[in-house]
Fold histidine kinase.
Amino acid sequence: MPPLKMNNLSFPSPVRTIAILLVVLFAIETTIMYLLPWLVPIRNPYLENLADATLLTALFTPILYRKVFHPFRRVAAMQKSLTDRILAGVVDGVIIFDEAGTIHAFNAAAEAIFGYPADQLPGGKLRGLLDPVQFAAVLGTGTVPRPGKGTATLEATGRHRNGTPLALEVSLSQVDWNGSRMWFAIIRDISARKEGEEQMKHALSLLNATLESTADGIIVRDLTGRSVIANRRFAEMWRIPEDLLASGDDRIMRDYVLDQLKDPHHFLEITEQQRREPQQESMDILAFRDGRVFERVATPQVVEGNIVGRVINFRDITEQKNLENQLRHAQKMEALGTLAGGVAHDFNNILTVIMGYCNLTAQQLDRDTPVRQNLNQIMAASERAAALTNSLLAYSRKQAITPRPLDLNQCVHKVEKFLARLIGEQIELVARLGAERITVFADSTQLEQVLMNLAANARDAMERRGCLIISTGRIHIDQEFVRMHGYGKPGDFAVLSVSDTGSGMNEAVREKIFEPFFTTKEMGHGTGLGLSIVYGIVKQHNGYINVYSEPGHGTTFNIYLPVCGEPEATPAPDLEAIIGGTETILLAEDDLSVRSLVRSVLAAQGYRVIEAADGAEAVALFREHEEEIDLAILDVVMPKLNGRETYNEILARKPRTRAIFISGYTADIMDKNGLADHGLHLVNKPLLPSQLLSKIREVLQAS
């Protein structure tokens, strides 16, 4: 576009104009001086001078108008026209007013802003358009420069003719006009911009409130990797100081948090990949040294179709992972327990036959016969096998227990001397028992077994030199404890801790130590059942166990048991001699070998035995011999009808019939079949003849 030319607005040259006027004036005056006496012969000097001046004025005035007044008037008119056009075409309002606030100029844009025509302004004053307080502030502002020294911009509030408030931006400058100081104001309506700013402010406030209310940590980075925004939860999760977060320097923040991570190299690798590929979504898991686990999800930030950065979301999944690990561990242990319990059940039947016949044969032989020694070896091996079976049952939590209120400190005192002998003189035993009485609902024998197994395990870990510390105390488990550890339930618990100064263990070993038959010892130096038995006993007591260990820093087992009321004194049982009888006994056992053994033992003691291979046959035989049968011996697990169902059928016909239940799968089966809470009699497999006969006489005499 060519530049605007304004040559027609230029004034005549003052020097040239004055020179012409002087020459013309001189020429006219000279001409009049010589021609006037010839043209007007007047002898009066006063009249001659008057005529001279009149002619001079008449002749010089047109020339003066032509050379001076006409050009200046024309330029002024053109300037006014140009000014009016400029003011009319300016999109911003223009107002010129004096010190009193009286408006002298008011363009069309100003009329549109305020809704007033220029000739209808209220009082012709600026205070009718602007807020009075702000009007005074505008006139009294010290920021407005002196005339010709620039402008000052400020914001003010105005009012439209219809009463609508206006947000205005006012650019003020001062000019000298005809010796008076005038104010020149360029006014812009910024109501829409202000409304947009308010909307943006509200949106940002809403966004900030949303970010701060979420439970996840969120950070937004631009394409250069610089942090744009992050919520408070992000700083809390990563434990980043506020001043460091405010810096927005992502590299400094990364360096600050690297020590918290188990695998910082993986973290940096994924972070760098996210920076290189901003369009890709990614998800990974971050493991911390203190046990926390975060899920990181990174997605591209898209604005108007363009990727401008990345939004990274961090979620604390520590509790979820702990629960998953706990569930997975519980499922694995439950499966192993079911397998162990099933093996123990079948093995107990075999041991019952072996030990029973050995016992019967030994009773039939003289004490001095060499064969008796062989039977004693068989019995000893069978007892060891029975102990192994009991260990499997303890792990699978299918072993019957007799819990009662127990003083935990007394239990530790009771077994302390035995533990000292077990670990040897080279290992120091330290008992740090709580000052207050701690009562738990537990089986004392089982609890002692837990201590012995842990002590034996610690002894081997310390290679018979070091310190074993047993301590007791109380702890209140709250929801935060459950969330961080992934187990337990809120309440008061007793804590039994067993610590050693041994070699410790790594993470891989620690995860497997409670599995049956897992051992780090050499072949022949352990069954791998010690800690699995401890685990089973603790779980059977509705407790929890965890282990803390690092290679070279020893191991600590913490056992949490629910506390209960004070223990009650229990009378010691009376021992009676085992004798036989002549009563009739219904024997129901699905294992032929066990049934044959029990029949032989009972028959040898004078009892009459009626045999049944399953529950249905036992019910049928009871109906035939209802009046004769004095006692029923029922296996808990049988085909067709189990022990409880069989006993219910018998009670329906003869309510006062006594029964003894036998099983190698006792605790779980009794609970499922409703036997545990009814005071019914139970004998565990493997059965010894003396044990069974003693229980039979006890039940028959009680009836």
Observations:
- The two ends are 125 Å apart (CA to CA).
- Residues 1-8, 523-527, 569-577 have pLDDT under 50 and may be disordered.
- Residues 321-385 form one domain.
- Residues 318-364 form the longest helix (47 residues).
